[in-house]
Amino acid sequence: MSKFFTSSIGQKFFMSITGLFLMMFLCVHLIINSLLLFGDGELFNEAANFMSSNPLMKVIEPILALGFIMHIIYAAYITLKNRMARPQAYKVVSKTKVSWASKNMFILGGLVLVFLVIHLANFFWKIKFGTVATVSADGHELHDVYSLVAGLFKGCLLYNVLYILGAIFLFFHLTHGFWSAFQTIGWNNNKWIGRLKTISYIYAIIIAGGFAVIPLYFIFKYFV
Amino acid sequence: MKIKLNIWKQANAKAKGKFEKYELDGVDAEMSFLEMLDSLNEKLIKEDKEPVAFEHDCHEAICGCCSLYINGHPHGPGNETATCQVHMRSFKDGDTITVEPWRAKSFPVLKDLMVDRNAFDKIMAAGGFVSIDAGQAPDANANLVSKIDADKAFDAAACIGCGACVAACKNSSAMLFVSAKVSQLALLPQGKVEAKRRALNMVAKMDELGFGSCTNTGACEVECPKGIGIDFIAKLNREYLCASIKEAE
Amino acid sequence: MSKLDAKIPEGPLAEKWTKYKATQKLVSPNNRKKLDIIVVGTGIAGAPAAASLAEMGYNVKVFCFQDSARRAHSVAAQGGINASRNNKNDGDSTYRLFYDMIKGGDYRAREANVYRAAEVSSDIIDQLTAQGVPFAREYGGTLANRTFGGVQVSRTNYAQGQTGQQVLLGGYSALKRQVALGKATMYSRQQMLDIVVIDGKARGIITRNLVSGEIERHAAHAVVLATGGYGTIYYLSTLAVQSNGSAAMQAFRKGALFGNPSFIQIHPTCIPVLNEYQSKLTLMSESLRNDGRIWVPKAEGDKRKPSEIPDEERDYFLERRYPAFGNLVPRDVASRASKERCDNGFGVGKTGLAVYLDFRDAVAKQGKKVIKGKYGNLFDMYEKITGEVPYETPMMIYPAGHYTMGGLWVDYNLMTTIPGLFAIGEANFSDHGANRLGASSLMQGAGDGYFIAPYTVSNYLADEITNKVPSTDSPEFVEAENNAKAILDKFLNINGTQTATSFHKRLGHIMWTYSGMQRNEEGLKKALGMIADLKKEFWSDLKIPGKTDEINQELEKASRVADFIDLAILIVNDALNRKESCGAHFREESMTEGGEAMRIDKDYSFVAAWEYLGEDKEPKLHKEELKFENVEVKVRSYK
């Protein structure tokens, strides 16, 4: 098994496992975020506070962080190694018809990462280490995360555009990443390959679309 | 018709190569691509110039000798075609055709358009066989093989070892080649006994020889002259994972 | 005549091989590792022989000129491999297969060898299956079979239209296993230049490393040639463009006799010549004749589209002439019948040198899906080359040079007249007489490789245990290397104006015209003169660019063409000498009133084995009389 971790298939296996894990996280994240669209933030605040105070989350949070870091480190390592497998490039760039995303996963991932850093600085950092105003609801105090979010999108149109862009990068990353993860762990065959690719698109549309709807919602709310 | 050619020329494995431009007149649309190169070489020899070294043999898309990267496609235009099946009717008068050798660290250029694909032989030697000596075989009908398995095994076994998958892959990965052999033998009862060992050893050798890893772009299956699909790569991943777990036990 | 002792074991035909194996000399396992064997060629005979000998424990060195052993031209065999397993319960047996081959070979093959080939045929299928060759299966999981030309049973095993590839890869994988175990050493991209004979025994070879250009010496206790056939002598043939007759010629020049050189099979179903640049004719498997019907228009020069010609105006000439076998007559018969129609002006296509192979009825009866399942890859191949779709319009086909029944003369041990030099597979002359039946080349090659050579080579090596491998510094090696170098330098120093390919094309044209499907004395004599002139021109006007110490494909071609020229002279001499028609060898002077081939058994029931007497000297003929004790020699009729 030790060879497995250093083999090309093993390394790809970790990309897939971490990828699948992150994709599950995206689902949870989207469900909570979608509460931004309903009411005036009470629901969202309840959910956000539940997540941050839940003891389970204390365990999951570092695992999630580790998942991200592993995914990124493996991606960088594999990409570098794969580049070394072809020291001399072709003069004519490949004209083989394959999906654009599949060829540019590292770049797409990098763009998502840039977005992620900004995103963390915007929210995670402030919630965790900064001071967030509190509101009272039904007799208990809650961090007013809703205002933090709404404030950001209200304050600058650029942030709205940035979050939409982030969703687009994520969309392309997921169109390939989703089915590819199943392919790499061996859960695929010639019947499922078409189905998985379709599910990939559906998943990517729901996730990226869902995340893009939020800044759009705030654009309509504050700028139109 | 008249064709302009831009061909990689490299004197030997150590030399630095460069692209050389040629013009060829009177190209017949019915000529095969290889015959076009033949006539270029005949012309070059008569003009006291160095002919272009390239590999070809059977002209039936089965020997796997040809290894030309034509205008951004391994084996040139067309689906499920080897270079020998490309005809000049796929090109237009006045076209410029760029011809390059396979590019991969594991396939070093020997001369011009010839590359060394010995790495594939080494991978095969690492486990691409069933360990049975002549004379030990049981009756061929003793092990029944379902038609579905036999047909599927054949689809994988159709690989001609040309290396187009490596040439097409942005990572120079040999996964399609390895997966075809591993799958073929894993699908048949006679190959199942050694299936785990085979998967482990062939992948280890593939990694050792400097091929890249598979990022599932699917370029290999698009360019494979035998239409071998990446579902076999999924099967290899599965076989490899199971073998690794089994080995750890 | 001692030169031609075939060493056939005594006893009844069916017991000869069993008796041989029971009484042959053996080499004990611990002595085997002291013995070295060189195998040249990695096709369907060479790879299995090398693998099997290595499995036994001998040290094997394997050579091929391709970059990988997997590329040998056996890979292109399409239709199938015969085995007398009687899978279809249709009356097949070892004797039946033997009889079909003897008859198919027009009674010009050696009974004992042919029977042995039939005897081991079943084991081959077992062996290949065990290696993972995915032969076609029935839904019940048993082996599927198809029918081939010239027989009335269904005994051909197949893997779609790529049987040769699958069978070859079986042998290749067995070889790779031995390479990994260190018992076999692979030397690829090596062209053999000469055989080294020491004290009358084959002791090694001289090769040229095709990458570095270095000349190498390799010594061994025995040399096995599995170097294939020389059908490329016609330039345009179904063979790979690099297939050649050089190894056989090197053996011939060193004293091995050459058997029946003029027996060259012309395959009836090939894609016709399309243009003057063509470098190769593509075979369309004989299996297509199971469902395809061959015809030409009844009216001379009928230029209508095939679909516009109604049935009553079509001449299904094979079905008309040979009602019993119809479209499945043997290859030589089918080829000549097509040529006869075309020569008389009934041919179709642009050149008039083609006949139709029509699947209309089969598609209508069985449906496109079934036909696709059987021949899909062949139809695709045809479409890629010609741009036409065989499901809709008939294929156009014409005969082309294919397989050489002739080759190095070998005895029952598959040993040539040089002790220690073996020839197996297509490289020898032994099993197919004057014509080969479909799907029996893989059978014979694999049989030689897996189950015959390992025994007979051991039998020879048993007397070599005490002999050390000769030093490659011995004078014989030095001399052979110097000769080989001198020839290479000679090619480069001619500095003429014509390329090797242009000479090959011209030689091919002469051979096809005068020594192809039909031959006559006048034409053959004319050919001899033309080849002699061509030879002079070759050696005075050849142009080879580059140097010898680098990759030089033109130099490789030149050495092959030089050997082809000498081989052509041998072929024509043999064809001239045999004034009868038999199998693929059709002398116009010897035919029946109906235009069929006519054998002259009282004068020509022998194997013509030619001995080299020196450069530009007439070769000397030796005859191995053929005795038929187990079959009645009859007029071969497929009517």
How would you describe the overall organization of this protein?
The complex is a heterotrimer of chains A (224), B (249) and C (639). Chain A has helices at residues 2-6, 8-34, 42-53, 55-84, 100-103, 105-129, 145-155, 157-184, 192-222, and strands at 134-137, 140-143. Chain A has 224 residues and is mainly alpha-helical. Chain A has a single domain (2-81, 99-222), classed as Fumarate reductase/succinate dehydrogenase, transmembrane subunit (3 helical TM bundles of succinate and fumarate reductases). Chain A has a two-stranded antiparallel sheet with strand order 1-2. Chain A starts with a helix and ends with a helix. The mean pLDDT of chain A is 93. By secondary structure, chain B is α+β, with helices and mostly antiparallel strands. Chain B has 2 domains: 3-111, Ubiquitin-like (UB roll) (Roll); 118-248, Fumarate Reductase Iron-sulfur Protein, Chain B, domain 2, CATH 1.10.1060. Helix content of chain B is 37%, strand content 12%. Chain B has helices at residues 33-46, 118-125, 147-157, 164-168, 175-187, 189-192, 195-208, 219-223, 231-248; strands at residues 3-9, 18-24, 68-70, 73-74, 96-101, 109-111, 114-115. In chain B, the strands form 2 sheets. A 5-stranded mixed β-sheet of chain B has the order 2-1-5-3-4. A two-stranded antiparallel sheet of chain B has the order 6-7. In chain B, helix 7 (195-208) crosses helix 9. Chain B is elongated, with a radius of gyration of 20 Å. Chain C is of the alpha+beta class and 639 residues long. Helices cover 36% and strands 14% of the residues of chain C. Chain C has 17 helices and 19 strands. In chain C, the strands form 5 sheets. In chain C, strands 5-2-1-9-17 form a 5-stranded parallel β-sheet, with helices on both faces. The model of chain C has no long low-confidence stretch (mean pLDDT 95). Chains in contact: A-B, B-C. The interface between B and C is large, with 81 and 81 residues.
Features:
heterotrimer, A: 224 residues, mainly alpha, 3 helical TM bundles of succinate and fumarate reductases, two-stranded antiparallel ribbon, 9 helices, globular, B: 249 residues, alpha+beta, Ubiquitin-like (UB roll), Fumarate Reductase Iron-sulfur Protein, Chain B, domain 2, 2 domains, 5-stranded mixed β-sheet, two-stranded antiparallel sheet
